[in-house]
Amino acid sequence: MSKSVISDKHFHDEAAAYRFVEKRVWPDGPVCPHCGGVERISAMKGSSTRVGAYKCYQCRKPFTVKVGTVFESSHVPLHLWLQAIFLLASSKKGISSNQLHRTLGVTLKTAWFMSHRIREAMRDGVLAPLGGEGKTVEADETYFGDRAVITKRTRRGKSGHGSKRSVLALVERGGNVRSFHIEHASKVNVTELVTANIAHETRVLTDESRLYSDVKETHAHDTVKHSAGEYVRGDVHTNTIEGVFSVFKRGMKGIYQHCAEKHLHRYLAEFDFRYNARVALGVNDEARAERALKGIVGKRLTYRTAS
Fold first, then answer.
1. Does domain 136-276 have CATH number 3.90.850.10?
2. C-alpha distances in angstroms, 165 versus 87, 162, 199, 272?
3. What phi and psi, each to the nearest 5 degrees, are found at residue 143?
4. Tens of pLDDT along 186-213?
5. pLDDT at 254
6. Which of 156, 191, 245, 295 has the fewest Cβ atoms within 10 Å of its own Cβ atom?
7. Per-domain residue ranges for the chain?
């Protein structure tokens, strides 16, 4: 019988957790986060020295691998952070702060903050356009949850979605998805995002929404007419992006239940991350968690910023 992945030593032993993270953040040895030095760095020793502490003798400052990452200034043991990352990365529809609070034995406030820091680590910041020669990208928008501020104008929106939060997603068939929370789903906004995020030689597939009527000016563009009961015409369909939205909405409604609009971009990053590191692309739960861990550097998030 194979052992559980969560029984690995770095999930339960603090020294092992530090070694695990150091190996991935510093593959060539310790790097001082204060001055960038790599020489004259020594591990601090002594019975009162905290685990994983080093001192840089170039700038004379102590540090650990947590400095300059989403873990900085956190009093949560590092092995619990690794458990939280694995749970969030391996749960297809996410894991609630309440569940993390009970599983890890931390307060609900701490679990909520940990979740947002991990989502920040999952944001890849990739700007390269999707698609390319011979590639196909599906684009669609969805609406869910009430907006933070609902005015008469948005309530009476012609689309019928004026009071809802708007999400636009682009998914390359056989590749990655990229999702955006947009203030208003307008033809101008949608066209700008499509133009900036999809390579011009890519074929774009959408439904018949007028939001995409200008896409044909910059890309080869085919549509399916959902209003007429047409969902597939040869290889023209938006089923891939509908599948992405299906998982996202089930996670938001069934697991998270409530999401403040100002945090929506982080939840989108979380669902994008898991889709872009899915089993179909050869990425298992362990590899996905390690990929999230590699994103911790340079992404400091304070509680005041997140709340």
1. no
2. 27, 8, 27, 18
3. -135, 135
4. 999 999 999 999 999 999 999 999 999 9
5. 94
6. 156
7. 136-276
Mean pLDDT score of the chain:
91
Write b or e for each residue in 240-271: b if 16 or more Cβ atoms lie within 10 A of its Cβ, otherwise e: bbbebbeebbebbeeebeeeeeebbebbbbbb
Among the ranges given (96-110, 160-174, 219-233), the one the predictor scored with the smallest mean pLDDT: 160-174
User: Rounded CA gap, 31 and 24, in Å?
Assistant: 12
pLDDT for the residue 148 = 62
Residue of 184 and 214 predicted with greater confidence: 214
Cβ contacts of 54 within 8 Å, gap of 6 or more: 30, 32, 41, 42, 43, 44, 62, 63, 64
